[in-house]
Design a protein that fits this description.
It is a single chain. The protein is 38% helix and 34% strand. It is an alpha+beta fold and 173 residues long. It has two domains: 71 residues, Double Stranded RNA Binding Domain; 81 residues, 2-Layer Sandwich (Ribosomal Protein S5, domain 2), CATH 3.30.230. The strands form two sheets. Strands 1-2-3-4 form a four-stranded antiparallel beta sheet. The chain has a four-stranded mixed beta sheet with strand order 5-6-8-7. A hairpin with a 2-residue loop joins strand 1 and strand 2. The chain is elongated and about 70 Å long.
């Protein structure tokens, strides 16, 4: 139990978008709020969630709980992503390119919130198509779920690193 509370203190949350929605009933309109929230540990772990309630703080709380349950790990190399990625969701396409030290987060609105929560310090992004915040966040996460670290890619291809070659030669002799 203590470990959970320590992890929660280290997480940051960012509200991406709050929307007032109305349900038309016999007596008129019933208003409620929906919120998209991004939660991250600023060290390569990030998640998003949406919540809906009669009041804004409750919608945000529900979104934070959903985001904590849906956290994923992303590989970061020196504060940026390992290679060029493109995420698609609906009519939205988000292009992400690793950047040099000192570039900063070049991203707009919803994508910026995700990158800052994930701990990405240097990145170039561009959104094409729909600028709907729901779709932009989902497109970024679609790319993040497909992203692999360079070590995972070399292992998948069956290639060996320089240090592993010497061990392999010694075993076969």
């Amino acid at each position: 139990m203590l470990r959970e509370s320590m992890d929660e203190r280290q997480l940051i949350d960012k509200v991406v978008f709050i929307n007032r929605v109305a349900k038309v009933v016999k007596g008129g309109r019933r208003f409620s709020f929906s919120a998209i929230v991004v939660v991250g540990d600023v060290n390569g772990k990030v998640g998003f969630g949406s919540g809906k309630a009669q009041e804004v703080p409750e919608a945000i709380r529900k979104g934070i709980e959903a985001a904590k349950k849906a956290m994923i790990d992303i590989p970061l190399i020196e504060g940026t992503i390992p290679f060029i990625m493109e995420g698609r969701f609906g009519a939205t396409k988000v292009f992400m390119r690793p950047a040099r030290e000192g570039t900063g987060v070049i991203a707009g609105g919803a994508v910026r919130a995700v990158m800052e929560a994930a701990g990405v310090e240097n990145i170039l992004t561009k959104c094409y198509g729909s600028r709907n915040p729901h779709n932009m966040v989902r497109a970024v996460f679609e790319a993040f779920t497909r992203m692999m670290s360079p070590a995972e890619i070399t292992a998948r291809r069956g290639r060996l690193k320089k240090g592993d070659e010497a061990e392999e030669d010694g075993q076969s002799a």
